[in-house]
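Customer escalation, tier 2.

The customer says the design service returned an amino acid string that "doesn't look like it belongs to this structure." They asked us to rerun it and document both sides in this ticket. The original structure tokens are below, unchanged.
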């Protein structure tokens, strides 16, 4: 699929943060004078406690766990333990998974990720669950695609600092969708979005929700901590409410924004040509041969 002229779907993995992002990082506890010491403290903790065996412990890898927990070494370590426990419990989400095999989620417009950032510099991902057909695409593919996005997003230093934003568009949600939302599924969704990945989901915006969502949300409520609740925002069809948090300049037209919307497939095809990303994903158990399909 040809990429739109003037639009670049790519990751920015330069170590040096843009000045504004570097300032945010400092407010989060990132101190260049202490970075090496804190990385070494985390590395020592991994060796001493032995609760997980990470596939790598180089500085760049450990930094993303530290940034995800605002440079609190103990919290970063606990996150790493949860991350590897989640992977061990759900190998079907990544083992022998070819990212390009997930292109149907883009073809059906279930997931889209903007090449643009919001006013704070954060990535914006849209999930349109009402367009998902459980009989066509198994729910495990939704988890695979979400985990893949988070794994890839965690490679960007800027996203490590700022986190990302999710828009959950529930237009067209039916009871058939709700029946697939078991407590076990809800727990895994929260693990991906809140507790077990080295990338923070800064905000989740719920739009176009109806009575079916109100019913399904009862499954989530008991699982939410106060911190998780503070990241949730409910807008219905009120676009002005959404714009209080995300500038229209970073939103597609369907949400009252100014930008066109691009399918998930653009991201997959670009990432498949990025050797560094391919290598990172291979280390995590993904299959990369062949990445491109006719």
């Amino acid at each position: 699929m040809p990429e739109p002229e003037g639009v670049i779907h790519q990751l920015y993995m330069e170590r040096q943060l843009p000045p504004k992002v570097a300032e945010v990082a400092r407010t989060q506890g990132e101190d260049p004078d202490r970075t090496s010491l804190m990385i070494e403290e985390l590395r020592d903790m991994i060796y001493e406690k032995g609760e997980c065996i990470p596939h790598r412990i180089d500085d760049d890898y450990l930094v993303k766990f530290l940034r995800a927990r605002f440079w609190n070494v103990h919290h970063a370590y606990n996150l790493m333990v949860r991350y590897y426990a989640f992977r061990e419990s759900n190998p079907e989400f990544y083992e022998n998974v070819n990212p390009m095999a997930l292109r149907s989620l883009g073809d059906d417009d279930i997931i889209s990720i903007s090449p643009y950032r919001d006013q704070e510099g954060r990535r914006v991902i849209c999930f349109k669950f009402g367009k998902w057909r459980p009989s066509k695409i198994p729910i495990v593919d939704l988890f695979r695609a979400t985990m893949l996005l988070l794994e890839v997003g965690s490679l960007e230093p800027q996203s490590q600092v700022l986190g990302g934003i999710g828009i959950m568009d529930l237009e067209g949600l039916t009871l058939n969708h709700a029946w697939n939302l078991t407590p076990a599924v809800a727990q895994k969704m929260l693990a991906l979005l809140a507790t077990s990945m080295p990338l923070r989901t800064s905000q989740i915006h719920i739009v176009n929700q109806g009575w079916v969502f109100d019913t399904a949300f009862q499954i989530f409520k008991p699982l939410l901590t106060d911190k998780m609740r503070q990241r949730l925002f409910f807008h219905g069809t009120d676009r002005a409410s959404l714009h209080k948090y995300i500038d229209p300049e970073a939103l597609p037209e369907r949400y009252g924004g100014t930008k066109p919307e691009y399918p998930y497939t653009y991201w997959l095809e670009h990432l498949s040509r990025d050797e560094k990303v391919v290598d990172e994903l291979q280390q995590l158990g993904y299959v990369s041969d062949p990445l491109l399909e006719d």
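Tier 2 assessment: The sequence is consistent with the input. The chain is about 45% helix and 10% strand. The mean pLDDT is 91. Sent an explanation to the customer and offered a walkthrough call.
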